[in-house]
Amino acid sequence: MDFFNVCNALYKYCKKPTIAVHYKGERLKRLLEQRWTGHLATVSVILNNFEEITSLLTEIDSVRAHGPELRMEAVGLLREISTPSFLFIANLVHEVLALLDPPNKLLQREDTDLWTGLSIVTSAKVCMQKLRCVEGFTKVWEKARAAANALPKSTTPKRRRTGNKNMDDYLVEETTGQREDDVETELKRLYYSTVDSVVGEMDQRFSEQNSHLYRALAVLDPESDLFLDPETVKCIMDLTQSPICYAEFEVAKNFLRSQKESKTEGDNWTTKLILSKYHKALQTMPSVLTAFKHALTFGASTAMCENSFSSLRNVFSDHRRSMLHKRKAQLVQLAFERDLTRKCTTEWKDTVLRRFNVRTRRLQLF
Where are the domains of the chain? Predict the structure, then answer.
């Protein structure tokens, strides 16, 4: 049975009312196939509450009042999650997706820039490459085997196994035909192939094809040695079809460096700080101001990002290429309505009530 199918079956089983009343651990997460963050949340809850889950399944199996169907399902789930292979895959998935969680959170924020996000992605990829070693596999394997050994031993099978008496007078040294490798060897192959697939996917999505754009974003960082180099910034200006003036970049470079040297309080110089603090001065240099804005708000639509980085691209791939798709347009409308609702219940609450109360109304406010 597939690993995530077992996780999904476990969630549906624990969600049943007759089972949920006996479960004392953290509520299991529903598996969201469209987002890998759903896989991380599901595996995290299972690993953190593994003892409670196994205790629940063991209790259901031992009590006859639950009925044969629930008991049979509990026995099957307990047998699946108690295997070392299941525990190994669970720890491996958690190890891999936990490294991708920081860049995912950073890239989803509204106040981040693409260069900072790419730096975190590069760091996550380096950490992912370090997992491809014998020590990394041994760590995950030992953790899974320790969890499997900590489980109570299963009862003896009802069917008693007996040896073949026809081979009593012979000595069997080896078998012929296809040989089955042990579990550890198979899991080692799975471990290395998983790490290689993730690293290869990251290399493909953040490849050298866009390296010139990365360098353009890097020189717009105030801490860069090539800060405001017009030749490097030109590619991102050409991408957005914005004019560039080399003289403005030279003046802005000298101006900002002099301002940075004159400050003694040790401000953390960022692109966002420059735009907010020296916006009036940069208005006289429109090409530089445009470049800084590009560094903070990269020209990529929501549809392009979703089709490029999300597993949702596999759904309706021929029709979900732009925001003209009906479902995406509705998602945008719901996002705006949620933002307006949040503001009406918090910061706009007093203003709305005051405006409603000052006019002639038939409804009286209490």
Answer: 3-152+184-205, 213-296, 312-348
